[in-house]
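Per reviewer request, we include the raw input and output of the structure prediction for the construct analysed in the revised manuscript.
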Amino acid sequence: MINTDPKHQHKYDTKGKQLCCTLEEKINAKTNNSNLVKKEDKKSSKHSHSNHDDGHDHDAHSHENHSDNDGHDHDHSSSNQTTLQMFTPAIISFALLLIAIALDNYFPQTWFTGWVRIGWYIVAYIPVGFPVLKEAFESIRKGEIFSEFLLMCIATIGAFSIGQFPEGVAVMLFYAIGEIFQTLAVQRAKSNIKLLLDQRPDEATVLKENVAISKKASEIIVGEIIQLKPGEKLALDGKLLSDNATFNTAALTGESKPDSKLKGETVLAGMINLNTVVQVEVTTAYTDSKLSKILEMVQEATAKKAPTELFIRKFAKIYTPIVVFLAIAICVLPMLFVDNYVFRDWLYRALVFLVISCPCALVISIPLGYFGGIGAASKNGILFKGSSFLDIMASIQVVVMDKTGTLTKGVFKVQKVVAVDVSEADLVKWVASLETKSTHPVGTAIIEHAKGKEKGASVTDVEEIAGHGLKGKVDGNEILAGNVKLMKKYNISYDAEIDNTPFTIIVIAINQKYAGYFLIADEIKEDAKQAIESLHKVNIKTVMLSGDKQAVVNAVAKELSIDLAHGDLLPENKVEKVQELKSQNLKIAFVGDGVNDAPVVALADAGIAMGGLGSDATIETADIVIQNDQPYKIFTAINIGKKTKQIVWQNIGLAFTVKAIVLVLGAGGLATMWEAVFADVGVALLAILNAVRIQRMKF
């Protein structure tokens, strides 16, 4: 979060990792990784965790907003456990339960009776039941008496009380397995969390009296001079001292086009030097760099997310006390109205009522329904970081998208070659031959387009004209290749239409005469148009935001039929645009891939990151990650969300309808334990089968 306390200073380790108020802590809270959030805060809430890699200050940020957790913590959710270790209690319980059922019904033994039989079922119950009993006790101790855990405890203990031992164990076993599945889904979706600040190098080369020495980036002070070699990443913000340089700014801007800087211009931490050795004077402290500010924006935006809560938690607050008091009433009140009142009989009815009323059909099928949705999404290359985001995607009204890396490939390619008074083959060969003497990414695109045709040409007298282009001789012909400024410099007239083209144009002159141009642009992804069309078919509005030129943005928007498009935007401008949409009470999904997209991803109702090309920070901040970078998967995610929500509400309707009928019969003494078992386990099984079918659907 942005530091509003003047007495508080953010703490960092020697590698630049922030040790307090961190994004990672917020992501852990959001994705219900309770072993990091719940367990640590009990013993480490008042220090910065300087001895831990994750650097959490849990007590400072409870972060209940935009969470899919229901406020509980199961021991099996520890990330230090393997999947087998997490399932071990359930496996033990299941094995003991199967043996007991076999001894009860198929291979009866004289010794398997009385306390031996009861003890066996209790032992089978403990591995899965003890964690829930513990949570119920903790909830009661904190004042939350009527919780999901109390429901499970009352129902299972009630089943034991009336002699339905297999029922008591099975209900808790199914519940435990469902919780483990949910935990696995979330852990898989949010594995390998890394802090945004890890993008900065740990060390930098500093010049002192013209001697290059390696120094920890965190120890470099304002005014020192950094020497940056080609391919190296800048550690601190500064001012360029060299005459010119070209930087890859994708980590900050999300845009694919390299940024050429001249002497005296500002360069930022995270930029990668592309062509020549340069010198940069440090102007900002390590912890105050632009990259750090973006991190603070991410954390602040994350806190603004709308709160979400799983249905079962709200439901339990109302349902549990009603059921408990009704059960007590069924047991006690008849003594005032019935002549031949037998306490044991009415207690039996009350316990049958409790078994019937156990919400395991909901408790199991709801998380499994969402898990099914998460599983179906995973098969389609989409990761959901929690079940609540499936619900959110089902209600999305506007999809806001970044351009580069989301709708376009983020790679320069020659889109068009126009040759004038020369063959296209010769033009490509000569220009590509000249560009082999350059390190500029635009030249690389031309060389790739030539596909080896440039080999064998004689190239001499090459001169790089800073900010203009290249001049040289190829096979005896004088070639000029660069922007329109280069043509004007040599008084060469060219096609006036070039000035109105929004994309990058490399204009060519041969022997002082205009000879054509290369149009170089970011390539639109193959399925981008299909994605936009599919969204429009379900009445979802599309908006594109980009840091690229408005003219380029307009051209892409027109080709894809996007409803609204805004260009020339800085990260904070993107946040403003999304806030404008949110002020209209619209459900918004934002899709991006650059670090600059992370604040907007966090602010939107559903943040979607393009995982293949996307930055780590955006992926970590996002609620949903599209692994293969296909825009059409945005529509697929929405479709999966709608199907999942539909199945979940089918289960809720089924459970309520059946239970309502059998509850009435049970209260009147017309329902036996068989009906109770059907209303509980039978409905739960049907709901589970309904929940898992989503994984077999094709999207």
